[in-house]
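On to my pick:
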Amino acid sequence: MQSQNTDTAEPTLYAAHKKIYPREVGGYFTRLRMLSVIVLLGIYYLMPFVQWGDRQALLFDLPARKFYIFGLILWPQDFIYLAALLILAGLSLFFFTALFGRVWCGYACPQTVWTEAYLWMERKVEGNRSRRMKLDKAPSSAAKIRTKVIKHTIWIVFSLWTGFTFVGYFTPIDELGNKLFTGNLGPWETFWILFYSFATYGNAGFMREQVCIYMCPYARFQSAMFDSDTLIVAYHPERGEPRGSRRRGTDPKRAGLGDCIDCNVCVQVCPTGIDIREGLQYECIACSACIDACDEIMDKMSYPRGLIRYTTENAALGKSQHILRPRVMVYAAILLILCGILVGHLLQRVPLELDVIRDRNTLYRETSEGLIENVYTLKILNMDSKPHRYILSAEGIDGMKLVLDQSEILVEAGTVEQLITRIQADEYNMESRSVPVSFRLQAVDANHLQTTEEARFVGPGKN
């Protein structure tokens, strides 16, 4: 029996990866993007060194369960604020995407920001696009190995500094530096420095556009937030087609051509390697590099700019545009309401907490004076940045007495003070076996620092 040979190739699940060599470009949007990169990286790398009084201005102290945000100290009890911030961040993404498209991806996403930094270092070491392509295709040589070693050494050092800075948000940066130079880094600090360094090195140095195309979920559901009035980067085929090469100064109308000279520069500068002339694609991160590149070509050809530009689908079709549309107004209203609630809660937040635990081992006991006594354990949490003295009082039963060993309670900043107190009352003043009482804690030096906590007073009740 004769075997049959076929030339059909087996289908593959993933397309073979081709390295992208983004071409360097200048222009208004490129300068804007570079400014965004400098500002965001500057904030990231410098913020751990900013001091607020005698401590780090921004510090997430997980062992102590305290988050320092300039003058604000948040505790685990304030987790609701973190949840609110995450909700606001998500809604803000929806709001700005509905208005400006993928402006987050093109200008502020950490993947974009660090990739731009790594590309800049790569260009400084290996040269422009053509030289990088030529270097990668060249056979191994001492010069090639030396160039690659220099580039990766710079990348690794930058990655390690990135990981060190990241951990500096959770361990005070000066303390972390002392541990590093004395060789006393803890296992978790070492792990997270290396892990974050490796993630930065891998994502920004190697994976780059693959993170945006394959790993980022935002690209997959962005269409749900887009409409015909969302700002997008678009090529205008009615002006550019039919495309074709020609000499500089050629009148496209006389040549029967559009303004696009088919130079492919817009493809060469794209960090994800797409051709914007094929229409809106989910791989487009709206970085606007193709706009600057095309404008340069149009200037050289003495054609009007804007063959590729920021626009909307309605504008491209000659229809009227609407900035204030239902989804935008809904997002804006929700954002304003949530921001108002969050700010209001923060302004009314009292950095003081009182926890009252009644002794359940003995329901009550009778004193030598014939009074009913309950014992309570009090935990006073001073969430402020400075120590305070407090006065404790209680009410709820006529003639009740609060027995406390000290008239004023000193609680240091960011600490919990635990003490035992007793309430004594006459059983004839109790309306039932269990009566609600309230403890009130008031700071001596700050009228706004006060809180009240409810508890129960248990006794035999009236006979």
